[in-house]
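Q: I have 570 residues here and want to know how they pack in 3D. Can you give me a structure?
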Amino acid sequence: MANKCKHHLTVYLFLFLVILSGPTYARFIALRSSPDLLSDGVHLTLNRFAAETSTCDETYGFLPCTTSVLGNIFLIAVYGFLMFISAKLLSNGSELLLEILGPGIIGGLFLPILGALPDAMLILVSGLSGSTDTAQSQVSVGMGLLAGSTVMLLTVIWGSCVIVGKCDLVDSVAQDAQDTKGFSLTESGVSTDIWTSYAARMMVISVIPFLVVQIPQLLNSTSGRHLAVLIGLIVSFILLIAYCLFQVLQPWIQRRKLAYVRHKHVILGFLKQRALERLLKEDGNPDTETIGKLFTATDTDHDEEISDIELRALIVGIQFEEIIDLDFDDAVDKIMKDFDTSRNNKIDMPEFVDGISKWLHKIKRGAARNAGRYSMTNFFDNFREETKREKDLLDLGGQSDEVNEGGENSKWTTIKAVLLLLLGTIIAAAFADPLVDAVDNFSDATSIPAFFISFIALPLATNSSEAVSAIIFASRDKRKTASLTFSELYGAATMNNVLCLSVFLALVYIRGLTWDFSAEVLVILIVCLVMGLLGSFRTHYPLWTSILAILLYPFSLALIYVLDYVLGWS
């Protein structure tokens, strides 16, 4: 703790000195003669000092600025480090708040927005101040950050997570903490749950606003560009609301889907122990006579009704593995709810026969989807394997939406979370503008396009905390941690495509700027579609996918350079 405090004190003292230092300008003293020069042999009249003409504007009137290359590199590093601190504070505060309040509104709405706040703030200030010409020049910094952040998340960071988290792949499933295949491109990798695939699909959908804004360019029209920006802004904002709504409802959706799959396990366990073939006729239809005998055997008190006590005794006697993760009360409730249509907490003969028949038809339908044709000998096994796979993909264990109820500790943790979020927001708001100015000045000093500087450098500041956390989390070699890691990466890219793009489009529309980013949009579309479709239709990523992902990063840079500076798209 002491070392940590010393570290923060050193950082704050350093920043204080930087802020106080301010810019220093040198002037040359020139002694010039003049026809009006008067002298008494002792005194001379001197011309005024000749001053440098190359200056820069101090942000807020006191933050340091410079026109030199090394000076701007230093300022970009300092302001970038501050944005990294901001992102770290926001991330830590969000996680603390999530621990206290649980998922739902906090986890689904505030966390994604706060995670994208530093990027959104940089994009906003890139075109907010100055004249329209200045804003048009600096707005390329915002587009560079938007494109660079998304591309880095889905290429370098995504690929690195596959490499550090790789395990042996057996039947397309990663074996936790088992890495004996080395760097096999096909037999080593990671696997995730089905929710990661859903996150990838949502990211693919989130690129729609980019397509909308590009329609006038595709049609070679200049008159409709401003309108296209407005429509793209509306679509992007709608997708942002829809994504946040899904995040809010996701815990409920996940519980419902998981409950449904577990219910199918109850069906499987019950029917398997009852000798399934004896419950069916030769034509595959339910044998009501045999089902009736099963009812009689279960009705131990012979009152022609099965009570919850008798049903519980039946389940305890079966001890089937399919509901080993459920308590018996849950299993009894599920069966009773399915069979007791009269809602009197008892199951009579017609209800029992009807319930068993529905279960049998459900198994046949599920097996037919996988097997392609009906078979008396294998449809039960097919349905059983399908159900096990569904449960495995939905629930990797340990995912919980419990809320921490720690009394006094909870109160102080909440205060700490709010302070971290407030401090992170203040730092992001204060130092986004000087960082953009430093990038713009560095671009002027080196003649390197500001887009490439922001594409490469700024995501290192705003995404570094997220990148380190993702890679460390993925390195635990667990399917659960891999699922969470890749879901977070897809979610962060989605927020870039909806929240950050909404801010950017609003800026372009309100300031009346020109939308001329065809090459950048093309790169975002290629990366998002390739990596999104890769994650949408598979739940395992062999090692070769990391090579594909990482190579997309230099490909993106090269493509933008060729399109903008060789073919002249910009």
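Q: Anything worth noting?
A: Confidence is low (pLDDT under 50) at residues 1-53, 320-325, 370-377, 397-407. Residues 60 and 109 are 32 Å apart (CA to CA).
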